[in-house]
Amino acid sequence: MNNSTPQTLPAHLVPIAIQPSDIDFMGHVNNASYLTWVQEAVIDHWRALAPAEAVAAHLWVALKHEITYRRPTFLDDTVIAHVILEKVQGARAFYETIIKRGEDVLAEVKSSWCCLDAETLRPARLARDLVEKFLPSEKTA
Q1: Torsion angles phi and psi, residue 39, rounded to 5
Q2: pLDDT, average across residues 73-88
Q3: Which domains are present in the chain?
Q4: Which of 41, 62, 105, 136 has minimal CB crowding within 10 Å?
Q5: Is the pLDDT of residue 8 over 90?
């Protein structure tokens, strides 16, 4: 894929439900909860845009997360994950997920994911027409 093409779709927004179990001994959300939120948000993005047959045929596994925590999150906060697919390269997808409370950025997460064939559990490249549902300006290299 052409990796220099800018993102043209708006962020996919996913509301985050903060549970009492997310709160740590310091009274704010435990850092580990952010990983769960990112995984749920990225998978929600995939399911929202991919056709049902593609969702059934592919699984996604996280390869790497890099989290920058900006502000603490509390139980009664209204939080939204802003999911942005940055690029698709082979069987890998690169995302940025920004977790926000209103205009306040709570955390920024860069993550990479591997697409797997649901039957063989082996890495699988996505068809160009499927990638274009997520990144319409992408062209195959």
Answers
A1: -60, -45
A2: 96
A3: 12-134 (3.10.129.10)
A4: 136
A5: no
Whether the Cβ atoms of residue 139 and residue 1 lie closer than 8 Å to each other = yes
**Beta-bridge mates of residue 40:** none
Question: Cβ(141)–Cβ(87) under 8 Å?
Answer: no
Instruction: State how far the Cα of 44 lies from the Cα of 105, in Å rounded to an integer.
Output: 20
pTM: 0.86
pLDDT digits (tens, 9 = 90+) for 16-43: 999 999 999 999 999 999 999 999 999 9
Q: Which two tokens stand for residue 63?
A: 């390869």
The pLDDT, as a whole number, for residue 6 is 46
| Cα gap 12→24, rounded to integer Å | 28
Helices then strands, each counted (H, E), the chain: 3, 5
Asked if 108 contacts 23 with a C-beta cutoff of 8 angstroms, the reply is: no
Confidence check: pLDDT of 4 > 80: no
CB 124 within 8 Å of CB 81: no
